[in-house]
Amino acid sequence: MSFFNSIGRSMTRAPRNAKRSPTPTSATFPPETQAPKQTQVAAPPAQKPLFLCSPFVEAALVKGNFKTIVMLPKYVDIMEWVAVNRCVLPMLLFDFYNNLNEFYGVLTEFCTQQNCPTMSAGTTLNYTWINQDRKHVHLPATTYIDYVMTWVQNMLNDDSVFPTKSGHDFPPSFPSTVKHIYRQLLRVFAHIYHAHFAQILHLRSEPHFNSLFAHFLAFGAEFELLEMRDLRGTSSAPVGVGALWERWKGMGILAVKS
Ligand SMILES: [Zn+2]
């Protein structure tokens, strides 16, 4: 049984997010040209987030080094690796997406426009969205996440992006598309940890959620899909989960170089 099968079976199946907004078009969110950026906001009171406190920071389904579960062949570059293992990467991305979508599905009653008026991911960090007029705008987190998850789902279902038929080549833009998907999913993780970890604890789902995120990080680091600047943010606007990454590295859970 795979790691994700074990997660899927042990999790309470959540209903799909019922308030998914209409699919954003390429005019509102093309993959490379209109990436939301992060901006700094004022509100600094520093308090250690719950997800960095014991025992929650150690709560994970799989003990030990998460690199050991990234059991994929060595590769020279991602295109070469994909050519050999064309099914594995899309399958894993589907799994990350589906599991994250299920977690967010049970949090939607808490992640409302009132509770989360911006896409926060740290005490001084809110992500902004680039609208059709190419202006950076603050969106409620629920809207932002809705856009991201719908866009990722469309990417994963697009046969020109993720060819499923044998004989079809991956497009040259495939690595950058996958990195962009990774960046956006990371932001959803970052918001949930920052704004909704108390609810994750209430649901007693922190071992599952930590395991999912640790696997996401380990896989992203191993295959260079994860940009450290996205994970850490800036000194004035750090990403909350950047500290979690450092803690897990220090605990030996993530054996990664950077
Ligand atoms: Zn929220």
TrEMBL record:
PANTHER family (UniProt xref): MPS ONE BINDER KINASE ACTIVATOR-LIKE MOB
User: Which taxonomic lineage does the organism of this UniProt entry have?
Assistant: Eukaryota, Fungi, Dikarya, Basidiomycota, Agaricomycotina
> Which stretches does the entry tag as region Disordered?
1-41
The name on file for this protein is: Mob1/phocein
Domain of life the protein comes from:
Eukaryota
Which InterPro entries has this protein been placed in?
MOB_kinase_act_fam, MOB_kinase_act_sf
Ligand binding (Zn(2+)): 111, 116, 191, 196
* Keyword list, A-Z: Metal-binding, Zinc
Q: What is the organism of origin for this protein?
A: Mycena pura
